[in-house]
Amino acid sequence: MISVRGLRKHYKVHKRPPGLKAALRSLIHRSYTTVKAVDGISFDIRPGERVGFLGPNGAGKTTTLKVLSGLLYPSDGEVTVDGHVPQKREEAFLKKIMLVMGQKQQLLWDLPPAETFELNRAIYDVPQAQYKKTISDLIELLEIGDLIGKPTRQLSLGERMKCELAAALIHQPRVLFLDEPTIGLDVAMQATMRTFIKEYNEKYGATLILTSHYMDDVAALCPRVIVIDKGLLSYDGGLDALVQRVRPEKRVVLRLSEEVDAGRLSPLGRVVTHEPGTAVLQVQQEAVNATITRALSTLPVMDLTVENAPLEEVMSELFAESKARRTAVSEPVPA
Ligand SMILES: Nc1ncnc2c1ncn2[C@@H]1O[C@H](COP(=O)(O)OP(=O)(O)OP(=O)(O)O)[C@@H](O)[C@H]1O
After folding, report:
1. What is the torsion angle, in degrees rounded to the nearest 10, for the CA atoms of residue 153, residue 157, residue 161 and residue 164?
2. Among 43, 133, 186, 284, which one is most buried in terms of CB atoms within 10 A?
3. Are 122 and 170 in contact (CB under 8 A)?
């Protein structure tokens, strides 16, 4: 469905020196630097896949999604989306895709969402019968029946995001690029959006690429993740396999009926947190059974669970790894 080969997107940026004199001089003698936002990445995505596209701030995620949706020309490389070259912006391509950006809106501010929906129906030439069916499904799934008649400016952020998503899906895109679709939403609304996105993917078999800094989104939606950092690919594979590779240790979470000294916990594993009533231990996978047996026999355990390390930690460790690799490569070799 999506094929990306050696994609590069370099931005040429005007260097603006500090100080008025230098700034005035730079109006005549302009100098430029190159920002390598995406610097040679390749991946393939199969139809119907849900893929998390992750990386630290400035990694090149939005740039890649903009290239895939035809908003930006690549500097180099080959990209196809369902057989189309995105930058040609063919009508058939535009009808198949949608880019939803959590930080930008497509709903018209002074009009009710219902009017943007109608506008999108006309733009995408959606037959009336299909439009009626789709819109009533979307209204039901997203519970926006009461909202779509109010001017957009009167909606809360979460209400607006639900309507944004509905507007984006009126033409039933087969490929959805979601750039931070849950940004700024409260926890309950994030969960609603996640459930809806998953249902849309399952119902229509749509292919989905999602960027998000909320790891709950990623854990709930993306069995596969592609991680980029400074424009380079640092991981492409299963989310579970990534956790296994970066953090194979397990967390044993203990709920305790009475306070225990730290000295009684430390022989069982590395103490990650220790608060009144709870303690979290980190142990090697093969030591989990022994730790549980020992905890149950030596501590006042009320409840016990075994978990993976939080995804946020896995990601920051992965980002730190690739930063360390880059630093090692760029350091001069001693003479
Ligand atoms: N129009 C532009 N002109 C110049 N540089 C740009 C432009 N757009 C993005 N960049 C730079 O390209 C790099 C990648 O930006 P991009 O927005 O793709 O990152 P991102 O991974 O989406 O980051 P974030 O998680 O912060 O949204 C950054 O260094 C950014 O400053």
Report:
1. 10
2. 43
3. no
Instruction: Return the H-helix or E-strand segment holding 306.
Output: strand 301-308
Residues of the chain with CATH 3.30.70: 248-308
Give the ligand 1 atom nearest the CA of 228.
21
∠ CA 22-25-27, nearest 5°, is: 115
Place of tokens 């001069």: 332
The alpha carbon dihedral of 51, 204, 190, 105 has a sign of positive
Q: What is the pLDDT along the chain (335 residues), one digit of tens a residue?
A: 999 999 999 999 887 778 888 777 777 777 889 999 999 999 999 999 999 999 999 999 999 999 999 999 999 999 999 999 999 999 999 999 999 988 888 888 889 999 999 999 999 999 999 999 999 988 988 889 999 999 999 999 889 988 999 999 999 999 999 999 888 888 888 898 899 899 999 989 999 999 998 888 999 999 999 999 999 999 999 999 999 898 899 999 999 999 999 899 999 999 999 999 999 999 999 999 999 999 999 999 999 999 998 899 899 988 888 888 877 766 665 55
Query: Could you name the CATH architecture of 248-308?
Result: 2-Layer Sandwich (3.30)
The C-alpha atoms of residue 287 and residue 251 are separated, in whole angstroms, by 11
As annotated, the residues of the chain forming the CATH 3.40.50.300 domain(s) are: 2-243
Q: Which pTM was predicted?
A: 0.87
Which residues, judged by CB distance below 6 Å to any ligand atom, belong to the binding site of ligand 1? 11, 13, 35, 37, 55, 57-63
Q: If you write DSSP's letter for every residue of 37-79 in order, what string do you get?
A: EEEEEEEEE-TT-EEEEE-STTSSHHHHHHHHTTSS--SEEEE
Identify the CATH class of 2-243: alpha beta
